[in-house]
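Reading a protein record of the kind used here takes only a little practice. The integers have meaning only within a learned vocabulary of local backbone shapes. With that in mind, consider the following protein and its fold in token form:
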Amino acid sequence: MNLTSEAAKIYVAGHRGMVGRAIWSHLQDAGYANLVGRTSDELDLRDPHATRQFFEDERPDFVVLAAARVGGILANDRYPADFIGDNLAIEQSVIRAAHETGVDRLVFLGSTCIYPKHADQPMSEDSLLTGPLEPTNQWYAVAKIAGHKLCEAMHRQHGEDMLTLMPTNLYGPGDDFDLETSHVLPALLRKAHEAKSRTPSGSDAPVTLWGTGTPKREFLYVEDLADAVRVVLETPEEDIREVAPDGMLNVGVGEDLSINDLMALIQDVVGHDGPVEHDRSKPDGTPRKLVDTSRLDTLGWTADTPLRKGIEKTYDWFREQEALKVER
């Protein structure tokens, strides 16, 4: 059942994270005021009993499952058990509770890292499970594949209206800028910001990229993803199943660029004119990750935010947060 009433209760799981926060704000702006969320301190979604009790108490009509343990290559490499275990536990708890309490529709947010490392480009939903995964993020990818398959199984066995959106690399306000855990775009933004005019001579320090800088990536502004979530919530199930029988929809912008080109764009936004160096002892990751968005295109949705504009808005937010730290 699609979202037709502004009075419907919508549970946004993970509403304090970058993605969940953007979805919450976007739904509010669209007139949906009956939103419910819990912080991880208030509700541990890995706990199936606590999660089920929350669903019994709140009885949401719709669920957006944006809660997840996330991070970049370094975090995936250091904490593989946490990445696969925590995400599997969250998915199992929330999806089963939604089924058992009669939620009208659940939208699960995955990631395009689920696709094979050497999948044909652009990657269509049909390429899932057709080849080996990228080893550096396989733990997270396996968990997200399992979450999608659980949604698909719930639809097949019980007729549940459970859908999966697979967004490409996300960025935006609220992103993680910790170099130990962040993804590539916020990490490079922070590196360029910190390298700007930090030397006694007044010249900008170098920025180091992992690997060769030649892999290509596609980047989606988080507020565009939030809009895609709203559109999918509002679209009748029969329209979605007509283009996506498995209930899975890629979300992207339809174009990518190399990490080297991304670095040049970030340098221009930040105003960093120092050299760029490459640490070739570090992995490149998947050579290319461009998604086929034809399913979502058919439903009438496309991304609006150009990459440069999105980076500018993200950098503005980052500088505001840095200024607040100084004030404290």
